[in-house]
Design a protein that fits this description.
Mean pLDDT: 82
Strand content: 5-15%
Low-confidence stretches: 1-5, 11-15, 161-169
Distance between the termini: 16 Å
Radius of gyration: 18 Å
Order of helices and strands: HHHEHEHEEEHEHH
């Protein structure tokens, strides 16, 4: 019952080929600002200052610990909604005080880059049925596939653990490694606390990564029916990109522009978990 009518034209064969090529090579990240990650905006610099203050108060001295603090701040400061504008500037998300999972992940990337931590994203085409629990009465309007920019952070002293692609766990100087957002919070059991992520109710992916393991690749510890295994929902791995801007430049957003224009005034204010 998913729909392709509201989606941009995307050639699946081309996407798969490009994704395979991108996964096979090491993709650099960056700490530079981009049109989406507008690091120099006063709202972004104010957020970074708050992260540093709260990190100092909590004794969070590593980049991983500071990003965990930033994540906790964003959970409470930016209300989860179903906004469909993935290219929205981070500063606008902060000004509105609400954002989708993708938009809030972008804010976390902006904080990381401001702290000198390189970031990049992995492009994932996720089956639209994954969002059925959130829109039980609107399934006919759910896109056939959703483009997800899944952030990765280059952290010193970290061991890359993702299994997808040669570029996932590459280490460099000082033992730095790429860590997906789902692995920022270490020591989580596959089922987490209270079960795995179901994409239903008020909890979104952005909140879930701090509570339970989330994996799109079905590693041994999470394979099969384990709650953290989301691999069955992954249609195409598009590979890695130096920024989410680069990903959206090449593959577009989930919805075409006319659909986004019509949907954003409603979905951009619709709280995640509200009845559909």
């Amino acid at each position: 019952m998913t729909s392709r009518l509201l989606m941009p034209v995307r050639t699946v064969r081309t996407a798969r080929t490009e994704g395979a090529e991108a996964s096979a090579r090491e993709v650099p990240g960056s700490t530079r600002p981009t049109p989406i990650l507008d690091l120099e905006h006063p709202l972004v610099t104010a957020l970074v200052a708050r992260v540093l203050r709260e990190s100092e108060a909590r004794g969070a001295v590593t980049d991983r610990a500071r990003l965990q603090v930033a994540h906790g701040i964003l959970v409470t400061a930016v209300r989860p909604v179903y906004s469909v504008e993935d290219r929205r500037r981070v500063s606008r998300t902060l000004r509105l005080g609400r954002g989708s999972c993708s938009q809030r992940m972008a804010v976390l990337e902006a904080v990381a880059r401001s702290l000198g931590v390189e970031t990049r994203v992995r492009g994932l085409l996720v089956d639209g049925t994954f969002w059925y629990p959130r829109f039980p009465k609107l399934r006919a309007f759910v896109p056939e596939e959703v483009l997800l920019a899944w952030p990765e952070f280059r952290l010193a002293g970290a061991a890359g653990t993702s299994t997808a692609g040669a570029g996932a766990a590459g280490t460099g100087a000082a033992g730095a490694a790429w860590v997906p957002i789902a692995e920022l919070f270490t020591g989580l059991a596959p089922g987490g606390h209270g079960g795995g992520f179901t994409n239903a109710g008020a909890e979104t992916l952005f909140e879930a990564v701090a509570r339970t393991a989330v994996d799109w690749d079905a590693p041994a510890a999470c394979a099969g029916s384990a709650p953290c295994d989301l691999s069955a929902h992954l249609r195409t791995d598009l590979g890695r990109f130096s920024s989410r801007d680069e990903l959206f430049d090449l593959h577009g957003q989930t919805l075409c522009r006319p659909a986004r224009t019509l949907a954003e005034p409603v979905l951009g204010r619709w709280s995640a978990g509200a009845a559909a």
